[in-house]
């Protein structure tokens, strides 16, 4: 479902391939916005795709409920009616904690310790858990994000080390390692979760590239033929890997999380860097663009 090495077409706009697809799965951070404001070209692209009668699902690794993500999109300048549906890693995480159908969740205790910023506190609402303030009284860790943009993963060792001693499982609501907020990189929950795994801890992830979120996303898209669905994303590790595993096509946006490596695909040398980067991840999109635009 992906392009072969050295044959990644560079598009000037998504309009070049619009007729090849009936549905679009669109990432947010790095594609539609930078955490502070929406990208005007990306908003125009969604408007034109919508006008062309295509299905659009926004699929984000935001560690918040889908409605909360939709409200934040509106604040950033991405109108609610630009997508048929919004699905987030936080939504899928919350549902798993609520329903507790998977074996991992069935064995969780009642006491949860939340690691995350204040903006993620809505993830606690409606869940039948007792959220404790002391890691010593917790049965598991619910990880949504970091506390401060300047944080390093080691800041959380004073919590993770005693958690590891007690073999506490962790639920990670955002597998991303980092984002670029207003031009500056900062850690995401995934970096802390991987740090806990490296220490020997057990982590359950939800979000891209894990396939449970793609199964739900494809139901929302409502298109059975994966070759008629295009996933637009800026991360080879999450967006393109997840799309390829789900049997849908991936459109890579170079100006996002990999921008330091690729220089915006402005020269043949940059394209060679893209191929090298794809080789490193062993994941290949069907096409690439410097930014998401029509």
Task: Write a structural description.
- The protein has 294 residues and is α/β, with parallel strands linked by helices.
- The chain has 2 domains: 14-61 and 208-289, 3-Layer(aba) Sandwich (Rossmann fold); 103-205, 3-Layer(aba) Sandwich (Rossmann fold), CATH 3.40.50.1000.
- The chain has helices spanning 40-51, 66-76, 89-99, 103-106, 157-165, 189-199, 211-221, 236-246, 259-262, 268-281, and strands at residues 23-26, 55-60, 85-88, 111-115, 130-131, 140-143, 170-172, 178-181, 184-187, 203-205, 229-233, 249-253, 287-289.
- A 6-stranded parallel beta sheet has the order 3-2-1-11-12-13, sandwiched between helices.
- Strand 11, helix 8 (236-246) and strand 12 form a beta-alpha-beta unit.
- It is globular, with a radius of gyration of 19 Å.
- It starts with 22 loop residues before the first strand and ends in a 5-residue tail after the last strand.
- The mean pLDDT is 92.
SSE sequence, one letter per element = EHEHEHHEEEHEEEHEHEHEHHE
> What shape does the CA trace take?
globular
Distance between the termini: 23 Å
Instruction: Round the Cα radius of gyration to an integer and report it.
Output: 19 Å
What is the total domain count?
2
Number of helices: 10
β content, as a range?
15-25%
Largest sheet: 6 strands, parallel
Adjacency order of strands in the biggest sheet: 3-2-1-11-12-13
* Uncertain segments: none
E-strand count: 13
The helix/strand class is alpha/beta
Task: Map the helices and strands.
Layout: E1 23-26, H1 40-51, E2 55-60, H2 66-76, E3 85-88, H3 89-99, H4 103-106, E4 111-115, E5 130-131, E6 140-143, H5 157-165, E7 170-172, E8 178-181, E9 184-187, H6 189-199, E10 203-205, H7 211-221, E11 229-233, H8 236-246, E12 249-253, H9 259-262, H10 268-281, E13 287-289
Parallel strand pairs: 1-2, 1-11, 2-3, 4-5, 4-6, 6-7, 7-10, 11-12, 12-13
Antiparallel strand pairs: 8-9
GO molecular function, one term: phosphatase activity
Protein name: HAD family hydrolase
GO cellular component, one term: cytoplasm
